[in-house]
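Q: What changes when flavin mononucleotide is included in the input?
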Amino acid sequence: MSGSVKKLIPRPLRRKLARLRDALRAPPAAPAPRLKSFHHADEASLSTDELLAFARHDAHRIEKAFYNRIFEPKRSYFEQRRANVLRTAELLRERKFDMSEPTLKWAEHIALTFDELEEKFIRPHCTEPQPVQPDLADSIIALAARRRSSRVWASEQPSAESLEAFAYKMIDAARWAPNSGDRQPWRFKIISRPEDKLLLKGLKEEHCYAAPCLIFVGTDRRVYGALGQQEAGLYIDAGAATMLMVLAAHASHYGVCWNHFSRDLIESRPRNREIYDGFVREMDIPDFIEPVAIVAFGVAAFHPPVPPRMKVESLLL
Ligand SMILES: Cc1cc2nc3c(=O)[nH]c(=O)nc-3n(C[C@H](O)[C@H](O)[C@H](O)COP(=O)(O)O)c2cc1C
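A: The predicted holo structure follows.
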């Protein structure tokens, strides 16, 4: 249901319709066969998001092969990867996709300079490393050491527009996180309307759904290829992105709390599952998105005492 149509239907009626739709829904289909990679997939059935993720992943494999010095010895393998990128670009062009999308442009660039990757892609785009200065790490350590999870919110908060604009900035930070195979699989939903936050009541703690603004963090399960749902990257990729969001909020003096929102919590009792299903339905979160976290932020009532961390020496194995 599109957002504008949805707004016209009162929420209780929407809920009833959704329950009816769920009841009528066919039993879950057999799990989709695991994709080994793009060239083993049925092209037409791939969504634009999947095509883009596969293109990024294949281009990443080509570039990395060069750094690992396995490009020439395994050339025919990487030629297949190059063909994948070019075919993906062709499919996207046919679908009238905006070919200036930066990650697609990057993947295409690698595929097109494949025969002269070093001269035409790596050398023109690489930069000189800067001299190492260990002390520069101190500011990031100090920033990390001052951070605390905030769970009590000030009564005065910025407007919903300001909070949403800042959430956007947090997602801007998140997208620079390292991620497995450059799939960039994370997806986010900014939630600032009180009635939407309340959808989490019963599943998350009060400090979470009462926070001024929430950001749902999930991962697109479809883009992991052969390992599919079993891939730990599903959670690690989103975790890396979440950490950058938390740091960005803390650096701007917002209070922020990372809240657990993964399968173990959702499947731990039938009521949790019900609340989760209602939440994703109302928030239009597709079923191929694996939930990972809810980041809550806003102006904190106070900055809680920082719990000491174990000494570095006692962390060493
Ligand atoms: C993966 C993860 C899940 C978390 N889930 C919750 C949560 O559901 N509720 C909560 O209040 N805090 C949650 N936290 C915050 C932790 O409780 C908190 O980071 C930890 O106690 C250390 O305290 P500090 O963040 O103030 O340094 C979570 C943190 C992480 C990294």
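Observations recorded in class: The longest strand covers residues 289-298.
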